[in-house]
Amino acid sequence: MTDNRLIDLHAHTTASDGSLSPRELVEAAKEAGLAALAVCDHDTTAGLAEAMATGEELGVEIVPSVEISALYEGGTMHILGYYSDIEDERFQEGLRDILDGRNNRNPRVIARLNELGIDITLDDVIAEAGGGVIGRPHMARALLKKGAVSTLQEAFDEYLASGGGKAFILKEKYPPEACVRMIVEAGGVPVLAHPKQLRRKTLKEIEAVVDELIQYGLAGVEVLHGECEPERIPEYEGIARERGLLVTGGSDFHGTSKPDILLGRGRHDYRIPYAYLDALKARHAEIAA
Ligand code: AMP
Ligand code: ZN
Ligand code: FE
Ligand code: FE
Fold first, then answer.
1. How far apart are CA 90 and CA 48, in angstroms?
2. Residue 109 pLDDT grade (very low, low, confident, very high; cuts 50, 70, 90)
3. Longest C-alpha distance within the chain, in Å?
4. pLDDT of 163
5. Mean pLDDT (the chain, rounded)
6. For the chain, which has fewer Cβ within 10 Å, the N-terminal or C-terminal residue?
7. Residue 185, Cβ neighbours under 10 Å: how many?
8. Which SS3 state, helix, strand or coil, does residue 196 take?
9. Does any ligand 1 atom lie closer than 6 A to the CB of residue 264?
10. DSSP state of 132
11. Contact predicate 37/18, CB 8 Å
């Protein structure tokens, strides 16, 4: 019998910069007919308890996860950590440390925006985050509300984007090795998120990054990412398969922060098979053994 169940291994909640609460996200997954959903907030596991409880109630399998931002020049490196033990003290200590780096950055971005003549306060941004981890999408929303920009994308292009945003400030982060290792040490499965966002020019360069991460314990590559162009998918899949790495997929759903990204489907109407999760669980069992 073929398994036709569909899943999504990458979605955000209000615990970071998604617009749906953990409960609402799981309800949306149920509505979308997904059998399993990984809740992956930026640098926090705060949304997981509510997501797991709702998942149990509604019959949606919740995969506990986190998306850690690693220190990486010239692009973005995010490492997804699936099935890490969220009670692990060292793991939570690492996340707290990474969150400190994020929170040190935030007032500096505001100060920069003020220097540029924009009337915005940290409280405006905190209000957008509603108690969750503050990310640039919250700053973008606050800028939009203030009338400083006319779209969220303009807020990024003009002020917040790395490599050109007038108020971009790099946050202190852990190097890739530390990110991968903290996931492994908490019994989790580390997966390189959206390889395209590394912004390397050639596949060879992406392969070199992947090969380095493998030395630290990388177990997979997020191939079917919601924002990835269909032409890139076989290339990334090749990189993973050639190295015996897991192939995973997720929409990177953020709700209204990125309205063109649909849960379970992304921007290009992908379908993510349950088989990806079977393989991920098998790898987790090996790591735990
Ligand atoms: P932060 O965690 O504060 O670094 O913000 C990262 C989030 O901002 C990402 O997950 C994206 O949702 C969003 N983002 C980053 N760069 C851009 C960009 N150039 N255009 C639109 N959204 C972006
Ligand atoms: Zn995000
Ligand atoms: Fe990401
Ligand atoms: Fe994400």
1. 18
2. very high
3. 63
4. 82
5. 96
6. N
7. 15
8. helix
9. no
10. S
11. no
| DSSP annotation of 83 | S
Structure-token pair, residue 184: 């492994």
Q: Map tokens 């649909």 to a residue.
A: 262
Q: Per DSSP, which regions of the chain are E strands?
A: 7-11, 36-42, 61-70, 77-82, 189-192, 220-225, 246-250
Q: How far apart are the first and last CA of the chain?
A: 29
Ligand 1 atom closest to the CA of 161, numbered from 1: 19
Give the DSSP letter of residue 35.
S
Residue with CA nearest ligand 1 atom 15: 161
Q: How far apart are CA 101 and CA 133, in angstroms?
A: 12
**137-192 pLDDT per residue, tens:** 999 999 999 999 999 999 999 999 988 999 999 999 999 999 999 999 999 999 99
Amino acid, res. 219: A
Distances (CA, A) of 119 to 107, 115, 223: 13, 9, 41
CA dist 18 → 14, 181, 192 (Å): 5, 26, 20
| C-alpha span between 16 and 181 (Å, rounded) | 22
CB of 161 sitting under 6 A from ligand 1: yes
Q: Strand locations in 155-273, DSSP E?
A: 189-192, 220-225, 246-250
For residue range 212-269, what is the model confidence (pLDDT) as tens digits? 999 999 999 999 999 999 999 999 999 999 999 999 999 999 999 889 999 999 999 9
Q: What share of the chain is helix, strand, coil (3-state, %, to 5)?
A: 45, 15, 35
